[in-house]
Write a structure and sequence with these properties.
CATH class: Alpha Beta
Order of helices and strands: EHEHEHEEH
Number of strands: 5
Strand content: 25-35%
Structural class: alpha/beta
CATH architecture: 3-Layer(aba) Sandwich
Strand order of the largest sheet: 1-3-2-4-5
Distance between the termini: 18 Å
Low-confidence stretches: none
Mean pLDDT: 96
Length: 106
């Protein structure tokens, strides 16, 4: 399951989370972001109970986008214990995203 995040709940859900998380920075007008939506949803099901998956709309959360220096979308940030350990920019396929989760988070 993928949760929607914003500035009001990011700290609680990601920064203060004592685990691993994948956060997809996206926008509704972004074609590659629309392609990544189903990929992120499917991967989140594979890692249920192991990895938290979330999405942040960059248009609605410009302060978070600036904080993490999001210059291109989709940008997928991988967090361990509240800190970014890896960033992937651009669309990718299910196998590659799954491999990145395994390599950087598990």
């Amino acid at each position: 399951m993928v949760i929607e995040l914003g500035e009001s709940n990011f700290k609680n859900e990601i920064t203060d989370f004592p685990g691993v998380a994948v956060v997809d920075f996206w926008a509704p007008w972004c074609g590659p972001c629309k392609m990544m939506g189903p990929v992120v949803d499917k991967i989140s099901e594979k890692f249920t109970g192991k990895v938290k998956f979330a999405k942040i709309n960059v248009d609605d959360n410009q302060n978070l986008s600036a904080q993490f220096k999001i210059m291109s979308i989709p940008s997928i940030l991988f967090f361990k214990n509240g800190s970014v350990v890896h960033t992937h920019v651009g669309a990718t396929n299910e196998t590659d995203l799954e491999n990145q989760v395994n390599q950087h988070l598990l």
